[in-house]
Amino acid sequence: MRGLVREAGFTAGSLVLPMFVREGISEPAPIASMPGVYQHTIDSLKAAAREAVDAGVGGLMLFGVPADHDALGSAGVDPDGILNRGLRALKEAVGDEAVIIADLCLDEFTDHGHCGVLDVDGTVDNDATLEIYSAMAVEQARAGAHMLGLSGMMDGQVSACRTALDEAGFTSVSILAYSAKYASAYYGPFREAVDSQLKGDRRTYQMDVGNRTEGLREALLDIDEGADVVMVKPAGSYLDVLSDVAQASTVPVAAYQVSGEYAMIEAAAANGWLDRDRTIMESVTAITRAGATIICTYWATEIAKKVSRV
Ligand code: PBG
């Protein structure tokens, strides 16, 4: 009876697996604060992608961890930079069987760890950053990405990247906008995952935790600029924002269950304080109940193996 009348549900195809590829390692490197998640080599990335897609996961979202960082994040634009090489490897491994999503942001590549380039005062320069994002967008499309995940929270990033893609002929590469991205402490473990160089915080460009209406406003702006999917991030502590966006959006809505959400459940479960499997399913079901139809989660492969495929 409960199954028959259940309102919220999702399939394996709704899940997106975030993945990390690291330059200059010969074995996959475990991320201590995210048990079960690795910085991949090119080979282990391909194998993990294959496993995810065989389980029915709908999308793979790739982050690159370069060996060298500089002030402009040059390795992010370089066609032979680790992220673009990783995208080509994903394309080889899974082709068009899943949506290959490239993270489009500078924070993994800059030596100061910010999501954009800095002006003379050391503040992120929005418009100078858009020029670099536009160049990154074209290289990521060339490397085979089907969709670009714009995670830098610069104003105007969706229209800048859309224009650059269209001008370069990549009219069918789509844009997932991290529209409502909060300046959150839940990103803690991710900083280890990408070897972040950040000192300070991202409060000049990420949203304030207390703002609900602003989340909706940001999503509507991105839809206007041409976003194909809008996302709320983090997920679990922002279900109100997610619900608002899901009700108003004319494009599909995604939510990102971030590294800290993953780490909390894994840590509590490792201590025997939570039933791991039930808590994982509850956390993801709650995100779909709030209105997300696309869920980015580090448990994507594991969950996909348990739910129906289509
Ligand atoms: C930045 C970015 C972050 C995450 C995804 N993209 C970190 C940040 O904004 O500080 C976090 C993802 C996670 O915590 O799982 N481009």
UniProtKB/TrEMBL annotation:
SUPFAM superfamilies in alphabetical order: Aldolase (SSF51569)
CDD domains (UniProt xref): ALAD_PBGS
GO cellular component: cytosol
GO biological process, one term: protoporphyrinogen IX biosynthetic process
Annotated positions binding 5-aminolevulinate 1: R191, R202
Classification via NCBIfam families: PRK09283.1
Binding-site positions, Mg(2+): E218
Pathway stated in the Swiss-Prot or TrEMBL entry: Porphyrin-containing compound metabolism; protoporphyrin-IX biosynthesis; coproporphyrinogen-III from 5-aminolevulinate: step 1/4
Name the record gives this protein: Delta-aminolevulinic acid dehydratase
Function according to Swiss-Prot or TrEMBL: Catalyzes an early step in the biosynthesis of tetrapyrroles. Binds two molecules of 5-aminolevulinate per subunit, each at a distinct site, and catalyzes their condensation to form porphobilinogen.
